[in-house]
């Protein structure tokens, strides 16, 4: 798990090592253990390492294999690297390290660009092939590891976050397509767009091959289907298969490390199930970590009532942190400065503060992201299924944060354009190999939306403290299986029926299994009042915001006056969504 950056120049200029060092400073928190720089005329790589597998210098990056003429920088973990190493050794390859990094090099040399189909893990990597005189870049199937780029006639520049690319004098103007999606899909801007025109991001399950002259070839190497399997399975067989795949997913994430691993325990079903599966597999003294905040009125600021039960039942080594609301605002700017893109979910700050504490004890954690999207855990799925109208209407009513008409009221005339969110949804729903409307919803959610909401959020906030988060529920084999399960079976028992049945077999408390779906609570950013209201009002009425000219100040005044009247379909604060976007722009673009 690391941070990477680099540049391939197409003109006569030599890559500047000094500029790479500037980029490396912006990714340094992702890899605090060591750094590396490599420049060869028109190509250069920078790397910040978080040492997880093979802690020795043999695994240092950029990794250079002189015999094969390959140079690699890599962010992530390959869970099947040991099996691949054995296979490649039989093919005559000799290894100088014990890292998964070197396995990627040999795999690329042996299989070429199809090497990605052999890799089981989360990854973003870049290989300079000196013999072919080309750059090969890949992102994992689920998009767990980020990779951003800027492409001009002069150069292809890339990095693990947008902040590194912003240092390169790129176009920082607002992307109107991304702006509408940002404000419609609660912070999600699907790849390849980002909120600014000068930065794109590589799509999940995608590779890019860039020649020394600037020709770019994009390939998609994984397209999951949401259809019923040819082999008819009973409900019990579906549950059993889910149990097997989830157990395998958890264990391979535990085994691929040379450092201890813990669990972020929220108190919900998903993270509690991870703890239970570890104990079922024989792991003792599992380390768990929880965070909570102050209550606001009837809104509870922690889930300790539930996480404490899991700690007691499975006897984990537990750390619990309580954060007062008075600590949120002073630390908010830090969290926002570590967001590679604007992230409106209120739990982003919570993950940032939790990761700060957890990183003092451990370097790798398991987290429960993806379970709700894969196994139907959200309340809006049932509402979508019952809704009448077209597929887009059924989805939009229960997911999209603001109607197209309200979006036009929210932003100034220059950002009025077509309904890009609706166009994108039409494109996703029109993809082949989905049996029903709900199959389309689940596939879109788990393969596209989750990438740029909870997954990106957890990666950014944990890696800000040099902490690697692994997400077992987003194992691609488990996702392929989950998409093959009929929506009706997943949605039984108010959702996550399969996971609940597994949990009962592992003797999780009924109070945890049957509780109402919870969310990482931070009431102060949901029910905006007091100093938080003053702060958000100040951001949105500041001279920077007015001069930027994105938001219609007349409409902004209405929301500031009655923020409680402007909640989203998913119970988020529209005021916070607008304030966060402007705050992110002020911190990361203006400054």
Descriptive overview:
The protein is α+β, with helices and mostly antiparallel strands and about 600 residues long. It folds into three domains: about 1-220, Glutamine Phosphoribosylpyrophosphate, subunit 1, domain 1; about 235-295 and about 300-320 and about 335-375 and about 440-515, Rossmann fold; about 525-590, no CATH class. Helix content is about 40%, strand content about 15%. The chain is built from 25 helices and 17 strands. It has a six-stranded antiparallel beta sheet with strand order 2-3-1-9-8-10. It has a six-stranded antiparallel beta sheet with strand order 4-5-6-7-11-12, with helices on one face. Strands 15-14-13-16-17 form a five-stranded parallel beta sheet, sandwiched between helices. Strand 4 (about 65) and strand 5 (about 70-80) form a beta hairpin. Helix 10 (about 345-360) runs parallel beside helix 17 and helix 22 (about 530-540) packs across helix 25. About 50% of the residues are buried.
